[in-house]
Every structure is written in C-alpha cells, then in structure tokens.
Design goal:
By secondary structure, the chain is α+β, with helices and mostly antiparallel strands. It has eleven helices and 26 strands. The chain has helices at residues 84-109, 208-232, 237-249, 256-264, 283-287, 300-304, 323-338, 351-360, 370-384, 428-443, 517-532, and strands spanning 3-6, 16-22, 29-30, 35-40, 45-49, 54-59, 66-68, 72-77, 126-130, 140-146, 153-154, 159-164, 169-173, 178-183, 190-192, 196-201, 341-349, 390-392, 397-399, 404-407, 409-411, 414-416, 419-421, 457-461, 480-494, 497-511. It has a six-stranded mixed beta sheet. 29% of the residues are buried.
C-alpha cells in the first residue's frame, strides 16, 4: 500500500523547507533507511531518510522549491500502484488551505465585504498524528503524560503530551487546530515511531475508517512477520488454520506493544479484556492477565517426598528497560561489532595544567575544570588532524573541518552525550559554562534533540570517580573517543631525578577504517603539547 511522505519538521523552529537535492528518481527502488533527499531547514541542510520500502512513485516538491511542513513531499509504494486518489486528496487539502488564505486576505483589503459561512464548504476533515521521531536514534517512544483529553479543543502550538524518548522526556506540540477526536496510545504505553498517536479534526468527523485502515496495515505487518517465522519453525497446520479463521471473523483492538507481549507470552488476545478506548487491549492488560490454567495433579508420592534445600533465598527484581537503555544497548552493540576498535594509551604530566587552572580560576566569575581543558585541547588538536575528526560511510570518508565535541554525561537512566559545537572557536570559560549547563539539563531531562546531535568527536571522563584508566566504545558516527582518567600524584623522573609529580592517563579508541595507528599517535602527540602546556592554547 502506498505511503505518503510529507515535508518533515527537522527542527523545533522549522515552518518550511527547501528540497536542496533529490538523491533518487521516480521508479527507483527504496529501502527503509535510504537517504532520499537533502532538505534545507532554517538551521542547516540535512539528509532525509525514508522510513518505508518500495518504489518512488511521485515527487511532490521539486529541487529548489520551498514548501511548508506537512506538504506532500513524495509517495512510495508498489510498482505501477494507482496513487491518483492520494495525489487528489493532498491537492484538495492544499486547495482548502489556499481558500482560507484568500478569505483572510480579502478581509484585510475590503473590511466592508462580508464573507458568508455558506460560501466556505464545510468539510469533514481530520489530521492523523503519529508517534514522532524526536531524536536521530529514536525507534519507539513512551507517552509519559497526556495534557489534553478527548473532546478538548486544541490550537496549533499547544503542548498536548509529554513523550519519553531514548534520550529525554520531551513536550510534544500540535501542528494542527481542532478537537482531539481520538487517542491511539495511552499513558505509559510504548509504541514505535509512526504509530497512530492521536487524531485531531472537526467535531463529528468520521475517522473510524482511517483507524480501521491503520489497524489493517498493522495486522498485515504482524501476519507478514508470522509467515517469516513459519519458514523457520515447524508448526501445527490445523491450529494455524484455526487461528487465521478466528482473526478473519473477529477484529481485535490492541496496541502494537500489547500484541508483541501477547505473542511472546503465548496469550490469546481473545481471552484478554481491554481497558483502553473501545475495549482496546493495552500493555497493562497483558501484564495483569491471569490465564486459566488447570491445576496440575500432584501424586501422594510427590507430596510425601522430602526435598533438601539450602538455607537462604535467591532474590531479584526485573526492571523494564527504558527507551534510553534500549538505545544505549542498540547503538553501542552496533558500534562495537561494526567499527574495528583499537586503543592507544598515553600518560601526561599534569603539573603545569594544575598550576594553570589555579591561576585561571582567580579571574572574576571564572571556574574551569580539568575536563574543560581537555575538551579545548582536543578541539584545537582535531583541527590539525581532520582524519581523527572524520566519519565513515560505505562508499566514502568524510573529513569534518568543523569541530563539534560530544561530552558524555551520566544520568540516572544511563548516558547522554550533549555536544559543544565549534569548540575550537570557544574560550575555556565558554566551554566550561556550556558543559555545566548541559550537565544540569541532562539530569533534569531538558536537553533538546539538536543539543545532542552532530558530534564529530567524543570525550568521556571518569576521573572524578577515581578511575585511573579505562576504554570506551566509539560514539558512532565519530571515528574516535577519548577516555580520561583521574590525576594521580606519584613518583616521576624529572631531569634524571625521582620527584613527586602529577600524571593523568588517557586512552584513545579509534575506528581503524578511518584512523590508522600513526594518525592516532600524531593526534595524541599534539594533544600532549596542549594539555601539558595549556598556556599555548591561549596564544
């Protein structure tokens, strides 16, 4: 079935975008995740990937053209599929908007002319809102809280829900005006990106057919997955036939997560009573479901048997994985098993850095940390070694001449990496203030998506916890990550004499596809010069 792709909102302030370049042509086969276009927003030109598979059937916005968010961008579907109704529907919707704009303009120019209601055709329109992709790594989200109820009037720009992503809990605003007609994902439920979240439109609008169409697609997807698993396993043909018969005779309303959990637990959805809208089965219904199981017959010999057990009880607690933990697991696994890691270990003398920091912090309203010194030193060194500041693609290597340094910050749920952009152009004081601000936002879950995207290099510091040396997993698509240990006071040799000095160990993890051993070593040599003599960074 054909999928309509609209102009995406790629930044929180974006209202319209320009198609800078199409990377595919009509008739081309597209896979999920393929980059199909470059879109210029109010902040940057960004690559736009497809969330669907199929053939590119229609292009709605040509290269160089500007269009508002949610304007028809493209249609992807099966080859030779009839999409005329979809194109006509989009044209009609745009025509209605043009009509409203014309009426508003007429009211401004000729205040004496009355526009009668009957001249504007009333349409039974509504807008489907799907679970948004609120971060570059988000695959599913949790509705933490609904701020509106079914029946409430919603204005464009109103905050309607709080959504928990893999990185933070974020406010989600409506891009449409109307009445909230339907809620597709209840509070606490998890759903994949692009799952039906809500429907907003005119009161009395007939949206049930749209819900049925979406559920039909969902059922087809589930059936497709089941057919794939049948190829791998031998199952009872008769029971499979009965199951299909049951599904065809009665449609069951259930959230995607509820269906997945029921399948994993071998629970028949027909035996579960739904607590959601219109009897919709939710995650909680599956978790609280008590199956009817016949009590096993225990023989007298079993009852009288003495079993020796050790004293003491095993205990544990199952904690449901948060979106953040799932994202960390997925991204780090992909990095570790995709990028060939190797590690370079060094130890720097920190005596001059300690003296420099003490003197620098005597300036009014100034307080920098050793980590700020490391970030600044890395930024300057990366300008001289762009290969360490690079990214790997299957067909090319991208050398970044701008320096955006990600700083790993631990939070209760896991880890986030806010980004200090153009770090080489910022002073130590500016870097210190920005890192501290990001750390506070991280703990309060107030980081914005654009504050966590675009890093070209990452610094991870565990020195404040007394960790002297460790290795990190590369934060892809970066080519390297620097692990920073604690400053240790110990005997060192200076001018052929044993003296007490301060040292710090660092480990550079490199992706061997982009950074060879010599390249990484030369970068560390440059970095050593700046960290051991920080005053040179001010020249």
């Amino acid at each position: 079935m054909a999928q309509v792709i609209n102009m995406p909102r790629l930044s929180d302030t974006m209202e319209e975008g320009v198609v800078a370049k199409w990377l595919v042509n009509i008739g081309d086969e597209i896979k999920e995740g393929d980059i199909i276009a470059e879109i210029e927003t109010d902040k940057a030109t960004m690559e736009f990937e497809s969330f669907y598979e199929g053939t590119l059937l229609h292009i709605g916005i040509n290269e160089g053209e500007t269009a508002a968010v949610d304007t028809l961008l493209a249609i992807i579907g099966e080859k030779d599929e009839d999409i005329s109704s979809l194109i006509n529907h989009e044209s009609k919707a745009n025509g209605q908007l043009d009509l409203v704009d014309q009426i508003k303009e007429t009211e401004k120019e000729e205040a004496t002319i009355e526009v009668k209601d009957e001249k504007i055709p009333k349409t039974n329109t509504f807008q489907v809102i799907n679970m948004p992709r609120l971060s570059d790594t988000m695959e599913e989200g949790v509705v933490a809280k609904w701020l509106v109820n079914v029946g409430d009037d919603v204005n464009e720009g109103d905050i309607i829900a709080e959504i928990e992503t893999d990185k933070a809990t974020m406010e989600f605003e409506s891009f449409y005006e109307g009445t909230l007609l339907h809620i597709g994902i209840n509070e606490g439920e998890t759903a994949a990106v692009d799952t039906l979240l809500a429907i907003i439109g005119e009161k009395g609008a007939d949206f049930q057919s749209e819900i049925e169409n979406l559920e039909k697609k969902e059922t087809q997807a589930v059936n497709s997955d089941e057919n794939k698993s049948v190829e791998k396993e031998t199952i009872d043909k008769q029971s499979d036939k009965d199951l299909k018969s049951e599904i065809s005779n009665e449609r069951i309303l259930a959230s995607p997560l509820a269906k997945k959990m029921a399948k994993e637990k071998n629970i028949d959805l027909k035996s579960v009573k739904g607590s959601g809208d219109n009897g919709r089965i939710t995650k909680n219904d599956i978790e609280n479901h008590i199956p009817n199981v016949n009590k096993p017959i225990i023989s007298s010999s079993t009852e009288n048997k003495v079993v020796n057990v050790v004293s003491g009880n095993e205990s544990f607690e199952d904690i449901e994985n948060s979106q953040m933990r799932k994202a960390i697991a997925r991204r780090l696994k992909d990095s570790k098993f995709t990028a060939p890691h190797y590690y370079l270990n060094v130890e720097f003398n920190m005596d001059n850095a300690i003296a420099f920091r003490q003197q620098y912090n005597t300036l009014p309203d100034t307080k920098i940390s050793f980590n700020d010194i490391v970030v600044k030193a890395c930024a300057i060194a990366l300008k001289q070694h762009p290969r360490v500041n690079s990214q790997w693609f299957e067909d090319k290597m991208r050398l970044n001449y701008h320096v955006h340094i990600g700083v790993a910050v631990g939070v209760p749920d896991g880890l986030v990496v806010p980004v200090v952009k153009f770090a080489n152009e910022k002073s130590l004081t500016e870097i210190g203030f920005e890192v501290k601000d990001y750390a506070n936002k991280s703990k309060e879950k107030k980081l914005k998506p654009d504050e966590m995207e675009g890093s070209t290099f990452t610094v991870s510091n565990l020195g404040m916890f007394g960790i002297q040396e460790f290795t990190s997993i590369i934060n892809q698509p970066n080519s390297a990550i620097l692990s920073v240990g604690s400053i240790v006071k110990k005997p060192v040799i200076k001018e052929d004499k044993v003296q007490i000095g301060n040292t710090m160990k660092l480990t550079l993890a490199c992706d061997h596809r982009t950074v060879d051993g010599v390249t990484g070593s030369l970068f560390l040599e440059t970095l050593k010069g700046y960290i051991e003599n920080p005053v040179t960074m001010l020249v």
